[in-house]
Amino acid sequence: MAEIEITDNFKKEEYNNFLLNNPYASVFQTLEMAEVYKRYADTEPLILVAKNGNSREIEAALLAKKIREKKGYLESLSLHSTIRGGPVFRDTKNGARAASLLLQKYDNMAKDWGPLYTRIYPLFDTPQLIPAYIENNYEYGGWNNYIINLKRPVEEIWRGINEANRKNIKKASNEIVIEEVTEKILIPDFYELIAQNYASKGQPLEGIEYFQNAFEILSPNMAKFFMAKIKDEYVAARLVLTYKGVVYDWHTGALEKYVSLKPNNLLVWHILKWGAENGYHTFDFGGGGEPRQYLEGWVEFKRRFGGKLVSYGRYTKVHQEKKLYVAKKGFQYYKKLKFTQK
């Protein structure tokens, strides 16, 4: 069997060709996505490829995103990494072996790179990689998603949506207009809607520069920014990514006072219809939570669009156990203090 070389030295063209010809590639493993991470102060990309020692062809590749949620003395306790849709690998025994060696190299580098843990989110059904996860001590956890087939008549997609949801969408369409953001000047309005959603859930969110970078680098060919408007006011927003026939749901938000008018429902339907009419074959809802979250409202919202439930799981490896323990305890104390002071 050929020797495998792990390196971060590769030509842009060979990397792009590897992804374009690989059925397991996604937008989250592209060089364009890496550039979005690179330009933002609190995220950092790491790209590694595994090359065949004989042919020099890429056998596997991964793009990891390191995220810093705190600054100053808390920085080292807030670092973590995600590998979404990776590693990408040739569907051969050598490709799977290369993916395992790639993770091994990544784990060694992660010790100096700084994340407390890494979490991998597979976007395809790839049981071929399970041995690689096991060999490198990545722990499996349940993680669902919803996938909608767009390669069919729009009328059929519509009929697959929950009846009550269809009524909400019809009602919303009477007073809400959907617009695509085509000018960077509107990104602050777009971001404000997304930020309010994350703040209401107590979830961290990258700064506006991150979304400005995404607009500059990915739009219009790899990203679409949509907003819902009532009269002269923007009330909801949704950002989707597009790559190789797939529309990926990425970020969403809405003004709380307008949620009852169902702008998010109309936005999703608009995107499904747009995707089907523009040659896309799949809509990926971007995650459906852990199995225990099946009945939560945000999961139910996605389920009502009639997609297929898939469970590819997620895989986590802790790189710095002591620091992660301190970080968790500190975060629990912070939350308790925060709510006590309200």
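^ that was protein a. below is b, sequence first then the tokens
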Amino acid sequence: MMSTARPARRFASRTAAKASAALVVLLAASGITSCSAPAQGSEGAQGDALKVTASTSVYGSLAQAVGGEDVAVESIISSPSQDPHSYEATARDKLTLSHAKLVVLNGGGYDDFAVQIVDSLSSKPAVIKAMEGEGHSHEGEHAEESSGEAAKESAQDDHAHEHAEGNEHVWYDLHQMQHLATKLKDGLSEADPDNAAGYSERAEQLTQKLKGLEERAHGLETKAKGASYVMTEPVPQALLDTAGLKNVTPKGLAESIEEGNEIAPLAMKSATESLEAGKVSVFAFNSQTADDQTNALKAAAQKGGVPVLDVTETLPEGQDYLSWMGKNIDALEEALDAAK
């Protein structure tokens, strides 16, 4: 059996949450509540600007787009080398969050380290979550050959609904990010009424740009007709679904990878054979959390001439959210053009 090179992400997430909780207790006991040092991912204006802290650079970028020069945004996770699922909060993170007037989170259990710290603060900032409730991964399942085409279509429809409701990787959902723009406008305006007009104007500008990106993704549906994808993790699933591709990831594969477990032999065999035979249109590969298993699947895709769509969970260096998503759509279109 093939061994994985990284620890279980869900287990690591629980471990990180425990570490964050321990840190909260330690800092509370020491009475530390503030610090002058900025967090690693600092953007925008400083001085008297409204202090906003985001769990990741994705939400830092979106908060900056709405806040403009009226906010000072700091992102706790800002490096593509960091895995948000297993991130362990530091004392500096708590001190950064304690300074914030507004905190922007993904929610859905994705960035619980920040939730725990905010909950521990005596003076709590306002919190905006892109996703309410608990998230969990969903992946498509191959319908049994005997079930008929109607059953296959029904399974896909059900899956699409479940994805929208349960996949915590909501920043790849361009429609949901439009709702977040409104939440950001409302939260910033409440925290800083004097600059409400500016927040409203910039939120509208962001919403229109997000709509443009969503229209671009929907515009790929013609090219994507009959196209399918296998994904290593459900990170880009919303974007792929928006573009009209069919999810043919074997049952249990993406979940096993996300949890850091070994893929079931039958699922691994099915995916490998489909990729090597070129039966899949696009292979969506989370390069930020690659391991032996996902690299083997990538090699199978390359052997079969299946275009590989590289995706990440946080912003690449030097990009903002809009440019990043635009490049993801460009890359998907190129992959569809190259697909057999």
